[in-house]
């Protein structure tokens, strides 16, 4: 029993030393994730800071304790093999410190090779200093280190067990066996196997699988004259199905965009106008697509990472949901802790155990989870296919979202081998809202645009490969003939085509952030159609309901596109857009444009119990009033810019010169579109009351 106590004391002491050291280091350089808020508001959550740090310290202790225990076993084994060393507290502590250092180093090197951008997300130093180590690494080296550590643990445990049995020390024997069982459980609990091919049960209604990627640009798909072939799997779907070539989202921001996609309503009708909706507005005013499918006997499920938290936050009402919690919540942001602690804990949490016990780190913003989410989707398909109940699965990932963090070997696909800049793995310096705001205020000269595009394209390629795995699984499970597959995004991205980077900040010209890829394939979907007329994301819901032979509610703003697609005629639609909340004084804003307070003053937490960040009630009318608006069809786009005196209008010919204002040359077109745009704006009751 004495040796067990020494082992536990040594491991506890080592874990405590590492934990205290980390806490002291972080207190000298404390920085949390998420946007800043007013100090007096944040002070009200001082108690939660204490709780969050205590909780993080406890988890650090647990992880360091588990990683140090093999050291105490090794110390005991070596002491039995040589008379030069005695097994006591000092030797045990030394080996425990070595054990934690070795295991943590392995996890660090593993992450440095496979997802280096994840380390860089919270790294407080020049990441290029790690290049020399990264260049040495390879999958073979990482596997060798892993094998060596497991072998070392196995040998020392076997030796310790041998001597414990020889000494007839039953408690020590049970202790060593228990530790072996614990580590075996941890090891196998983090291994996720591919699902077996499903044996689909007969179903009378079509299934639906929607696969989306946040910030996926439409022009990365084939047929867009892009110089890289990034999406062969999506292109195959498109060739055998329907592509809405010019599909416009009403707001290039995630929450309002998916709200329109899944309700068929304009933003001023579903009330989600930005990424910070109030708890009251999260209750959608009428049944969503998911509500309707629930009523018609569908099993509805959603899988996502941090970018898809709104699927749980808004009242879509999926029957099954596996997504991150609300990302705009001060309590979550405080639980994610300071940067150094994030760096350490994220080494150990990208697995099933991390998802279960520390989901705020598993779902940490910027961490690529596309492979895990894709596998989870296939597992859900396998489970759903066994039932006769039709299913609707929505997979939404951050695979193509800033900071454009992809996994090995994707991040190497397009980056020059001799590239040594800070953007080697991700778009850098985006770890905090303050850094994002500072970067949003910069012009293109500040950025390494070619490298950022290389990173983005790597992410697109990885997303497409995972789409291919899902499509292949559907085909092998004999589900393809009765399953509608939809590829989509919430919005695109600006790479300074409009004068700034990001999305939804301006509506200038042929804004790529407002146009989304939309591909459908399956029963009832016209095959091999590249539909060129202007469509809107609000048209997707009624179109899908028609394909499923479900009555379309008359209250939707969108229309059913199938009759027009079948006859290859234009529905002659106008797409309306509005800007989201921009951060900082971004390039491209009109000199007289109405501005609202900075992000610190703008956000509030009216419900301290929930901790949800929302737009301050007193500033909300200004936010609505400051929005730019637009109307467009195939050829023309008219933009309304709110100023402190009178609106400023800009007109663009999208076919001839999509970024040159030609309003003075086409007064008749201006007046025609202005009448329609004014009517749309006036239907926004919040805008009317704000003015």
Automatic annotation (TrEMBL):
<feature type="transmembrane region" description="Helical">
    <location>
        <begin position="45"/>
        <end position="67"/>
    </location>
</feature>
<dbReference type="InterPro" id="IPR017850">
    <property type="entry name" value="Alkaline_phosphatase_core_sf"/>
</dbReference>
<feature type="transmembrane region" description="Helical">
    <location>
        <begin position="147"/>
        <end position="166"/>
    </location>
</feature>
<keyword id="KW-0812">Transmembrane</keyword>
<feature type="domain" description="Sulfatase N-terminal">
    <location>
        <begin position="206"/>
        <end position="550"/>
    </location>
</feature>
<feature type="transmembrane region" description="Helical">
    <location>
        <begin position="87"/>
        <end position="109"/>
    </location>
</feature>
<dbReference type="Pfam" id="PF00884">
    <property type="entry name" value="Sulfatase"/>
</dbReference>
<dbReference type="InterPro" id="IPR000917">
    <property type="entry name" value="Sulfatase_N"/>
</dbReference>
<protein>
    <submittedName>
        <fullName>Sulfatase-like hydrolase/transferase</fullName>
    </submittedName>
</protein>
<feature type="transmembrane region" description="Helical">
    <location>
        <begin position="172"/>
        <end position="191"/>
    </location>
</feature>
<dbReference type="InterPro" id="IPR052701">
    <property type="entry name" value="GAG_Ulvan_Degrading_Sulfatases"/>
</dbReference>
<feature type="transmembrane region" description="Helical">
    <location>
        <begin position="6"/>
        <end position="25"/>
    </location>
</feature>
<keyword id="KW-0472">Membrane</keyword>
<keyword id="KW-1133">Transmembrane helix</keyword>
